[in-house]
Design a protein that fits this description.
Shape: rod-shaped
Structural class: alpha+beta
Order of helices and strands: EEEHEEHHEHHHHHH
Strand content: 5-15%
Distance between the termini: 11 Å
Helix content: 55-70%
Number of domains: 3
Largest sheet: 4 strands, mixed
Amino acid sequence: MIYSMTGFASASRTLSHCALSIELRAVNSRYLDINFRLPEDLRALESQLRAVLMARVQRGKLELRASISELPAAQRTLDLNTELVRRLGDAGQQVQQLLPNAAPLTVSDILRWPGVIGEQDRSLDELGSACVALVDQTIVEFNASRAREGAKLAQVILERASRMQVLVDQIAPKVPQIVSAYAEKLSAKLAEAALNPEDDRIRQEVVLFASKIDVDEELSRLRAHVKELQHVLEKGGAVGRRLDFLMQEFNREANTLGSKSADLEFTQAAVELKVLIEQMREQVQNIE
């Protein structure tokens, strides 16, 4: 499977005392570069979260954001201080004995008493384990989106490679035709000048011309590079660097073809090869 280096995913979870949110985004980078934006309560998890990301992502500039938000009062889990309630009840009975006409404490009075209702403190263990689990869940979605994007990139590259193969197959038979046309043209000029077109020097000139425009080696290497490109994409994994190297090799052969061009059609094919290679290279920059 081919992965793009760009991606985004987010996930959230409601805990007993707060809501936890995770965002993971990435852009292209030559190496793996991970940055964290964590609230103070989660700072201690940075090394653990880094290990989780490094195990699942090979390249790219990643940013992981985590946020904690308090739940509305209606959703919070509240603790009842039963010991304080008991003491308030005992005190109320003592007041009733001393002052029989005094109004007894109501439930509302007791619940409003300072300290009777207390909100749960954040459990760092619960928060930490929830954060790690949520990051793991986010990475699954993150990698799925990168895989979908990577499949599209691979398809574009393979289409360009197929077109390159067609061009190479078109160029190959042109070389003998160009040499033959050159020999005929040279012979015609010699005939016009009343010289012997069968002169050994003419044959040597044709041989030298054929040597200069001989691109069999370059075409063979281009075919080999196309096959290697297809193999690498089928194999999948973290292949971005390998593909980047292949783009350099493609460029080298295309430049040589352009320098040996002796025909307009040949030149146009070499230019189109360069365009296709550049289009592939742009896509390769996005691949992990």
